[in-house]
């Protein structure tokens, strides 16, 4: 209470008369700013006790200036209020009671017409409210000094914006509060601390001076007080809201809430509560400006309900969050207790069991040192984590992967070349070249491994001897690199159309070596992470396909087939082929690092085999690593063989049929090959044979006596309508159409090249049918050749003059590019110009130069097979491809077909075109046509029989 004494001294010295008690004035008050909670509270809680008197006075003045008659009627009530107020007052100190305003003071409530005006920043002082204020501006200090010397009355008005220093008449509101400056302290830095008490609302009319401070003419604007029950109800609401609010916020002390309960007058309620509640300046000023007390209460009430809603919701959220926390803590505690109990009972907790199991598995996994260290470190982290933590499951999953990888578990089989040959022959018909290469590969590997093993054994002996010699001295650790013999054998890559046995060769190799077989399909992979995995920090991270596969096969030396390496894409997610390169590179793959595993894994024992349909799309660095073994399609005879000796037994077994329950003629297979499939490989053939077996199995299970013998005539009954026709003969019925041969990744195909002319000045060449650039160029070259050699070709000198030429290659789904259609284009154009038809049983392929030379092309075998499949027996080929043909094509096919080898385009035309031109409109004469029609009908009837 030292301060209070000091205060009292000050009071007596400076103020000498009526004071407004303000306690604990020790806080610093900032210039022109609203005051901190507790101080305001204490100032006003005492103010609340004291304010009855000024209120009464204001009422009086208000009545006096408005309605004197009513005043008299209200006298009894007023008396009551006064009495009640007095009883509250009795609690105040005696000294204060003594200095209470007397009747004489009340007289003073008639204010002078002109008063000084003090602008306030962010503060609205209401009648009844007592507020401490800091005064820092020089002009304001002067103002206060002046008023302290006279009646101590000043008009306090809020500034429209707190940013303005030295606010002028336009920067302040028009409604303010006449206040009395109660006490004043001068601070050491020259600023003032004052306490003010609001007395009455006034309106500022005009400014009489601006310098040194503002002075203005004023009119009192007493509040309009309604005396109805609604106002009373509103008042009670506001008080009860305020009580609730005080319970939720920290900055209003309890004393204030209690004090408001004692307030009688509605306007007192508004002003006192508004002083304590935090709201923005706009609303504060509005509460002052509204004339009706009823309206003031309504505004305040709606503000308070809104505040309460927000605060109560916030409280609710906070409480439920706390409850959740409490629950987790409780669970944690209970779990710990459970553990303790289990320990006491000598039982294992679930977590402990997991950890023990993992530890056991780590011991069994025989990991290399680095992996073992990591595994143990992660395990000890796991032990410390609560099971509920998300990290727990991440670490556990990781550890489970670590222990399930085949770090040192191999199938242990040694390579036996003789056995491998036997297995390959058992599983595959023909494919001699390929099998030979595979066996060579295995032989080399075998030899190397043997040598390596012998070397290792010798070294071990030597080492043991040395150890004997220098027992006790420490040995330098022999590094892994020194011992490792790098296997520089290229990776084998089988390239060929689907269904030619690439995958099954891989399976056979695995079988021959007694190792596990796994496939990784790379088709459509664009993300490097598919190969190499995601870092463990990502949610849902997984190891890449290589590690996943090894985990699945459970040995570290499987045969892994990387399917479709030609379909690996690259984009912004990284280049999978670079990851593949690392996998396949023997220099690197002994320490392959998967992002998820984050430890080196030795892939050097894995035997990788790649497959592809086409060679070109394989990324060059990858192709470089690999030795390409091409498997082309099969001839009809080969297919029949494969079907009889391999596919049929397999399908019989797959469909639960016993040997001998079903017998099939070779003609059946031939018919299925010809009429139900058109493919380079045997995949569809296998499927159709499967269907056949299934139907027979159904018949047997329905009670038909076995064996069931299937003949060629039964095929439609089992497999439905014939699916493929030899269409070449049907389509080449007029000049301007020829059969060409193309190579595609799924085998050879025949295509029809068509040409037509129509009058046109520009002599344009129109090309349609999704042709590639190279094929477009050969079309242009063909046209130029025909034009420039028209006479030699027996055509009119100005052939195609004033005509547009359209060349079309139907079947948009077959990719058509490359130069090999050159000869076909020329043939079509010459046929069109001469009116001679192209022979329907002839197909051709070959690149052509502008001078008419026929150049060699690729894919001869596939193309010839395709021609044969379509019923064509004569194929025109470049002379230079003759050697390929002799080498690649099986003799039985060569014997069945006729080949024309061309060096010049004239050789092609001679073999391809019919001798006689047909009639002008492209139709043959009616006799010939009739004969052809009859032939066709006969043919069709035969097919349906
Ligand atoms: P790819 O992998 O080339 O697409 P697959 O290996 O899946 O083809 O072969 C399809 C089916 O054809 C398999 O059942 C396979 O055994 C069989 N097959 C293919 N070529 C031969 C062959 N030369 N000898 C025996 N069966 C073969």
From TrEMBL:
Enzyme class, broadest EC rank: hydrolase
User: Pfam families attached here?
Assistant: AAA (PF00004), Lon_C (PF05362), Lon_lid (PF22667), LON_substr_bdg (PF02190)
Catalysed reaction equations from the record:
Hydrolysis of proteins in presence of ATP
Query: PROSITE patterns, from UniProt?
Result: LON_N, LON_PROTEOLYTIC, LON_SER
Detail which positions bind ATP: 496-503
Q: Tell me which residues make up the Lon N-terminal domain.
A: 115-308
User: What positions constitute the catalytic site?
Assistant: 820, 863
What is the annotated localization of this protein?
Cytoplasm
| Induction (free text) | By heat shock.
* Span of domain Lon proteolytic: 732-915
Which UniProt keywords are given for this protein, alphabetically ordered?
Answer: ATP-binding, Cytoplasm, Hydrolase, Nucleotide-binding, Protease, Serine protease, Stress response
Which InterPro entries does this chain map to?
Answer: AAA+_ATPase, ATPase_AAA_core, Lon_bac, Lon_bac/euk-typ, Lon_lid, Lon_proteolytic, Lon_Prtase, Lon_prtase_N
Gene Ontology CC annotations of this record: cytoplasm
Q: What is its EC number?
A: 3.4.21.53
Annotated GO MF terms: ATP binding; ATP hydrolysis activity; ATP-dependent peptidase activity; sequence-specific DNA binding; serine-type endopeptidase activity
Biased composition regions of type Basic and acidic residues, renumbered to the chain: 1-16, 65-79, 86-100, 917-928, 936-945
Q: In terms of one coarse class, where is the protein primarily found?
A: cytoplasm
The record's similarity note reads: Belongs to the peptidase S16 family.
Role according to the record: ATP-dependent serine protease that mediates the selective degradation of mutant and abnormal proteins as well as certain short-lived regulatory proteins. Required for cellular homeostasis and for survival from DNA damage and developmental changes induced by stress. Degrades polypeptides processively to yield small peptide fragments that are 5 to 10 amino acids long. Binds to DNA in a double-stranded, site-specific manner.
Alphabetized HAMAP family for the sequence: lon_bact
SUBUNIT field = Homohexamer. Organized in a ring with a central cavity.
Name the record gives this protein: Lon protease
């Amino acid at each position: 209470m030292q301060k209070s004494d000091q205060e009292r001294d000050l009071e007596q010295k400076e103020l000498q008369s009526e004071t407004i008690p303000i306690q604990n004035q020790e806080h610093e008050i900032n210039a022109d700013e609203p005051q901190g909670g507790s101080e305001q509270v204490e100032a006003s809680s005492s103010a609340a006790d004291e304010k009855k008197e000024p209120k009464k006075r204001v009422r009086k003045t208000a009545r006096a200036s408005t309605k004197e008659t009513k005043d008299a009627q209200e006298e009894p009530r007023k008396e009551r209020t006064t009495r009640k107020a007095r009883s509250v007052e009795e609690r105040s100190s005696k000294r204060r009671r003594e200095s209470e305003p007397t009747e004489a003071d009340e007289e003073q409530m008639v204010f002078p017409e002109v008063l000084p005006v003090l602008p306030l920043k962010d503060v609205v002082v209401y009648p009844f409210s007592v507020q401490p204020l800091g005064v820092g501006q020089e002009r304001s200090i002067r103002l206060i000094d002046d008023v302290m010397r006279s009646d101590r009355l000043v008009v306090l008005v809020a500034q429209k914006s707190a940013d303005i220093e030295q606010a002028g008449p336009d920067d302040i509101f028009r409604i303010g509060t006449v206040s009395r400056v109660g006490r004043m302290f001068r601070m050491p830095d020259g600023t003032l601390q004052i306490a003010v008490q609001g007395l009455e609302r006034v309106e500022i009319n005009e400014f009489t001076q601006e310098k040194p401070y503002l002075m203005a003419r004023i009119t009192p604007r007493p509040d309009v007080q309604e005396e109805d029950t609604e106002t009373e109800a509103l008042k009670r609401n506001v008080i009860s809201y305020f009580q609730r609010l005080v319970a939720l916020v920290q900055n209003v002390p309890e004393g204030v809430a209690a004090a408001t309960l004692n307030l009688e007058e509605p306007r007192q309620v508004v002003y006192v509560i508004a002083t304590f509640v935090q709201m923005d300046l706009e609303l504060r000023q509005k509460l002052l400006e509204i004339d009706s007390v009823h309206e003031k209460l309504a505004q305040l009430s709606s503000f308070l309900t809104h505040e309460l809603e927000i605060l109560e919701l916030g409280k609710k959220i906070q409480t439920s969050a706390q409850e959740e926390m409490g629950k987790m803590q409780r669970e944690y505690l209970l779990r710990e207790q459970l553990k303790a109990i289990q320990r006491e009972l000598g039982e294992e907790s679930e977590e402990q069991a997991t950890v023990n199991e993992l530890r056991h598995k780590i011991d069994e996994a025989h990991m290399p040192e680095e992996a073992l260290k990591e595994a143990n470190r992660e395990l000890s982290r796991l032990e410390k984590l609560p099971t509920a933590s998300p990290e727990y499951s991440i670490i556990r999953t990781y550890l489970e992967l670590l222990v399930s990888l085949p770090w040192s578990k191999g199938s242990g089989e040694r390579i036996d070349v003789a056995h491998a040959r036997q297995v390959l022959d058992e599983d595959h018909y023909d494919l001699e070249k390929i099998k030979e290469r595979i066996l060579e590969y295995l032989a080399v590997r075998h030899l190397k491994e043997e040598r390596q093993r012998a070397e290792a054994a010798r070294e071990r002996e030597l080492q043991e001897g040395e150890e004997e010699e220098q027992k006790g001295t420490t040995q330098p650790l022999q590094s892994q690199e020194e011992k490792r013999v790098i296997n520089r054998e290229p990776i084998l890559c089988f390239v060929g159309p689907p269904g030619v046995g690439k995958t099954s060769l891989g399976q056979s190799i695995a079988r021959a070596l007694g190792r596990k077989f796994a496939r990784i399909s790379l088709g459509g992979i664009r993300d490097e992470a598919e190969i190499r995995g995601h870092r463990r920090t990502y949610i849902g991270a997984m190891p890449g396909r290589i590690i996943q596969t090894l985990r699945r096969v459970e040995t570290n030396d499987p045969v892994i087939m990387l399917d479709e390496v030609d379909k690996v894409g690259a984009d912004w997610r990284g280049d999978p082929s670079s990851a593949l390169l690392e996998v396949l590179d023997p220099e690197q793959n002994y320490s392959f690092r998967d992002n998820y595993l984050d430890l080196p894994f030795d892939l050097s024992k894995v035997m990788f085999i790649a497959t592809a349909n086409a060679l070109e799309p394989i990324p060059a660095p990858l192709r470089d690593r690999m030795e390409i073994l091409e498997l082309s399609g099969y001839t009809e005879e080969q297919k029949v063989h494969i079907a009889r000796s391999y596919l049929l037994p397999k399908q019989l077994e797959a469909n639960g049929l016993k040997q001998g329950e079903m017998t099939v003629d070779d003609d059946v297979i031939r018919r299925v090959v010809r009429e139900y499939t058109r493919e380079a490989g045997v995949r569809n053939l296998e499927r159709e044979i499967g269907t056949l077996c299934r139907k027979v199995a159904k018949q047997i299970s329905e009670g038909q006596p076995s064996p069931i013998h299937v003949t060629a005539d039964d095929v439609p009954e089992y497999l439905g309508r014939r699916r493929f026709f030899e269409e070449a003969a049907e389509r080449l019925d007029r000049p301007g159409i020829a059969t060409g041969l193309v190579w595609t990744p799924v085998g050879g195909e025949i295509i029809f090249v068509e040409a037509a002319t129509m009058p046109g000045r520009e002599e344009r060449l129109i090309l349609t049918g999704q042709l590639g650039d190279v094929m477009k160029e050969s079309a242009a070259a063909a046209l130029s050749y025909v034009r420039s050699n028209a006479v030699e070709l027996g055509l009119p000198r100005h052939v195609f003059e004033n005509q547009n030429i359209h060349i079309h290659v139907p079947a948009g789904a077959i990719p058509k590019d490359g130069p090999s259609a050159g000869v076909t284009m020329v043939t079509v154009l010459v046929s069109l110009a001469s009116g001679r038809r192209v022979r329907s049983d002839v197909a051709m392929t070959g690149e052509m130069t502008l001078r008419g030379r026929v150049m060699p092309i690729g894919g001869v075998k596939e193309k010839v097979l395709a021609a044969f499949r379509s019923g064509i027996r004569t194929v025109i080929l470049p002379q230079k491809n003759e050697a390929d043909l002799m080498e690649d094509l099986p003799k039985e096919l060569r014997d069945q077909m006729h080949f024309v080898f061309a060096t010049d385009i004239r050789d092609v035309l001679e073999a391809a075109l019919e001798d006689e031109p047909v009639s002008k409109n492209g139709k043959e004469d009616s006799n010939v046509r009739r004969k052809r029609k009859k032939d066709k009908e006969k043919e069709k009837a035969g097919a349906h029989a």
